[in-house]
Amino acid sequence: MPISIVVPQLGESVAEGTVSKWLKAQGDKVRKEEPLVEIQTDKINVEIPSPGDGILERILVAEGTTVLVGTEIAVLSGAGEPAAPAPSLAAAPAVASAAAPPSQPARAGAPAVASPALRPAPSTGDGSSGNGELQVGDGRSLSPAVRRIMREQNVSLAELAAIRGSGVAGRVTRDDLLEYLQSRTAAPARASAAAAVAPPAPAAPPPAFLAPRLAPAAAGPREEVVPFSKVRKLIAENMVRAKHTAAHTHCFDETDMSAIVGLKREWGPKLEAQGVRLTYMPFFIKASVLALKEFPWVNGEVRGDTMVVKKFYNIGMAVGRDEKGLIVPNLKDCDRKNLVQLAAEVNDLAARARADRLKPDEIQGGTFSITNAGVYGAINSSPVINVPEVAILGVHKIVERPVIRDGQIVARPMMNASIGFDHRVVDGELAVKFLRRVCELLERPELLWFHA
Amino acid sequence: MILSACHLGPTPYREALALQEGLVSARASGTTGDWLLYPDHSPVLTIGRGGNPESLIADAATLKGRGIELFEVARGGDVTWHGPGQLVGYLIADLSRHGRDLHRFLRDLEQSLIDALAAFGVAGERVAGRTGVWVEGEKIASIGVAVRRWVSYHGFALNVAPDLGFFDLIHPCGLRGIHMTSLARRLEEKAPTLAEARERVAVAVAAAMGYEGLAWKDPAQARRLAEEAAGESGPRAEAHAG
User: Fold this and answer.
1) If I label B81, which of A187, A204, A310, B75 is the partner at 20 to 30 A Cα–Cα?
2) Distance (Å) from the C-alpha of residue A433 to the closest C-alpha of chain B?
């Protein structure tokens, strides 16, 4: 009888565990009480011993995967059982007699072996036997995951018996069951859809705007449960901590990007020829660093009851990575780098952030951050501070907009800029002046030359 | 039940690991009670099962040059440092006495350390989702536990007066900049000595974790128990074969 290895109950508030290390490989012989696998939850790593003698038939959950308590993670074949489900010669007569017509009496001595296969499912309500193993009529045992899905989706044992199991000895696995459920829900949906499009009377078609615009519901469950990845957990923690500790306030300004757009247009191709792609980010960094030098409190950190003002300028830039999750690596000592160096580093850092190739110190020790929601099309945003920093600059899409210059309406590439700041330590006056200065430096980059 | 506490004195990390494993066997088979072991480690880095190589800043050559050994161990958590000035405590405890509830065990262990810190006038606190003890946002004690046959080993490390510069070799526990602190940094000349901290923490562990008392034992006794358990069981797999 295969034994299902599940993540055991590890405490009242412990809902999940991460498979940290398999101590045995698939196909290994294991003995009762021998350590099989390590599961980690929070800061505790637990060795799970084997519940019996046997062979580790199949590992179902890879190392590093987080699963709910009760999830089946491996299957152990029982002691003395053949590893392969192929029937042995000794089992053959039992099969033969089970298939024989009922009028022909089973051979004496054999019925005890033969009849269980034909006997209907136990009538103990949910069908679970005393030892917690649920069995189908033909003796296939079910994992807790399968049992749970059966309960939730009202799958009868009769239905289950009809599913061809792909697991050990024909066991119905979780995947088999989910696949079955998809076809089960899909079939009635198709039937009712057919009924709906076949009205008995050929009435005039309803106006187009009344026709349902939604495509027919896709087969399968309507919700998907996706456990948080480690990165997602950290993002969630950091965001909540930021919102709980910093007194978030935002203010907004706008800047005429004509000069920067011109510089980029002129220098972009030249740098490209040297292998450096020029984006707007290096300009934002340059302007920020000079403004931070003029307003040092914005380049700081709250530590307990103190404000730590930093004399170095490690500028973080938020990098979106789709489902991998936001990360904010920072460029070190931006005050000591020229625009071309910054451009090269921005590209390198962003590429490595997306490839998960950042070094740990590149995501620590930032002093101020910039987030560019404009790359996704936003024209304004109120960003969350990258705590323990005290401010973050939001830059956005550059849009041609009509503005008044010398009494004339002219089109100019305009950009909204925003700042999220911690009002505990950065007053509104300071934030507004800082943001205005950043905008001014972008409008008139020659100021960088005069002041930096 | 009485908690047996024991100051092992200078102990190489590998030896402390073997000692713990022996005592875990002894505890699981019921030949001894719960133990709190205090080793004095020379500088060592250990990586738990939650660790990844990127948490290490220093390269192998740097570590070797500074005489720091690196171990991968079966406890929970990421990378951490142990060494002089730090109170390292290994708790060999039967979790069945703690309701086989891992989180409750961690929270009780944190409470012990918070209570001990309070006795020195330092307000330690928990940070949700970040096991350990923190003082004003800085980490003062780390916790990482392993469990075998429902017996815990490994434990905690409280920074009494270590050279916090060692933590620059690693990223303790995660992605973001974690500032480490110590009793010496918080209290300066009023900080307790390691010996004072050792006694205070033992009392706090015994109280917060529901022991009836605390008894200081000779390290030789712990070593003998561990050796006997290791000797009679041989490979772990045999321990319960009969």
Assistant:
1) A310
2) 29
pLDDT for the residue numbered B176: 54
List domains and CATH numbers for chain B. Answer: 2-240 (3.30.930.10)
Nearest CA to A62 out of A18, A126, A31 is that of A18
Q: Which of A138, A335, A348, A423 is catalytic?
A: A423
Amino acid in position B220: A
Q: Which helix (H) or strand (E) holds A114?
A: helix A111-114
B173 catalytic residue (yes or no): yes
- Please choose, from the candidates B20, B37, B39, the residue with its C-alpha nearest in 3D space to the C-alpha of residue B28: B20
User: Between A322 and A261, whose confidence is greater?
Assistant: A261
The CATH number, out of the four listed (3.40.190.10, 3.30.70.270, 3.30.450.70, 3.30.559.10), of the domain defined by the range A247-451:
3.30.559.10
Domain ranges of chain A: 247-451
User: 3-class DSSP state for residue A193?
Assistant: helix
Among B173, B183, B225, B229, the active-site one is: B173
* pLDDT (average), residues A116-145: 44
Give the Cβ contact number of residue A228 at 10 Å: 13
Across the interface, which of A10, A35, A304 has its CB nearest the CB of B136? A304
C-alpha distance from residue A360 to each of A43, A347, A421, B14 (Å): 21, 18, 26, 28
DSSP-assigned states of every residue in A428-444: HHHHHHHHHHHHHHHH-
Measured between beta carbons, the chain A residues lying within 8 angstroms of B174 are 234
Residues of chain B with pLDDT below 70 are 53, 172-177, 231-242
Beta bridge partners of B7: B38
Its sign, for the CA torsion B213, B219, B221, B225, is positive
Q: What is the DSSP letter of A319?
A: B
Interface of B with A in 155-174 (CB under 8 A): 171, 174
Asked if A35's CB is within 8 angstroms of B49's CB, the reply is no
ipTM above 0.85, yes or no: no
| Contacts of A189 by beta carbon, 8 Å cutoff, 6+ apart | A216, A217, A219
pLDDT at A29 over 60: yes
Q: Give the integer Cα–Cα distance in Å for B181 and A222.
A: 49
Q: Is B104 exposed, middle or buried (0-12, 13-18, 19+ CB in 10 A)?
A: middle
Q: Which of B13, B3, B34, B2 is nearest to B225 (CA)?
A: B34
Residue B29 is labelled as binding a ligand: no
Burial A264-299 (b: 16+ CB within 10 A, else e): beeeeeebeeeebebbbbbbbbbbbbbbbeebebbb
Q: Is B53 within 8 Å of chain A by CB?
A: no
**Which among A364, B142, A41 is positioned nearest to B134, based on CA atoms?**
B142
Chain B: residue nearest A305 by CA? B136
Taking contacts as CB-CB distances below 8 angstroms, the residues of chain A near B152 are 44
Interface of B with A in 70-129 (CB under 8 A): 74-77, 99-106, 129
